[in-house]
Amino acid sequence: MLSEIVKISSVGSESIRLQPFNSNGTCNSCSLKPSCGQYLLNSLYLNREVELPTSLLPKETDLRSLKNGSQIQINIEAGKLVQLALLLYLLPLLGMLFTAYLAELAGLSEVLIMTLVFLVLFLSMRMLSRYFQRHGRLEKITLRLLPASEMMLSKVSIDNRGG
């Protein structure tokens, strides 16, 4: 189970805007900072916010309990994350490579091959978009509102994990 603690910056009827909690506080005290990819990513996006559509939240999530400035812990199963990543990245890529290979075997011109490859890319993205519209809810994601006492414990455990 992968988890991340985030701060709610705004709650709307259609989406929730989230900011990472203490994204650089831990990295600044870490000795591996110069060679760490996470530190580099955090330094690129200092004031980053993510908009999470409410349609992706589990059905039992009560939006009225989420307030601006409160902190929540988002959990997602690692297997579900890998499955979604493979679906989003591997499926279009394999479709494009397979189309280019078949078009090359058929002896088509390069311009026609490129056109077919982009058409397959467009169609695969369209298919994925429709799939996520129908099966959009990620039931494997859980949100947990952190009480004030647990927020302080979370900050201490994050600051002490060293990296």
How many strand segments?
Answer: 5
CATH class of the largest domain: Mainly Beta
Number of helices: 5
CATH architecture of the largest domain: Beta Barrel
Kindly state the mean pLDDT as a whole number? 76
Q: What can be said about the biggest beta sheet?
A: 5 strands, antiparallel
Report the order of strands and helices.
EEHHEEHHEH
Extract low-pLDDT stretches.
151-163
> How do the strands of the widest beta sheet line up side by side?
3-2-1-4-5
Protein name: Fis family transcriptional regulator
Transmembrane segments: 81-102, 108-128
Organism: SAR86 cluster bacterium
Keywords: Membrane, Transmembrane, Transmembrane helix
Describe this structure in words.
This protein has 163 residues and is α+β, with helices and mostly antiparallel strands. It has 2 domains: 1-76 and 140-163, OB fold (Dihydrolipoamide Acetyltransferase, E2P) (Beta Barrel); 78-139, no CATH class. It is built from 5 helices and 5 strands. Strands 3-2-1-4-5 form a 5-stranded antiparallel β-sheet. α3 runs antiparallel to α4. It is extended and about 65 Å long. The two termini are 19 Å apart. Mean pLDDT is 76; it is low at 151-163. It comes from SAR86 cluster bacterium. This is Fis family transcriptional regulator. InterPro entries: SigmaE_reg_RseC_MucC (IPR007359). Keywords: Membrane, Transmembrane, Transmembrane helix.
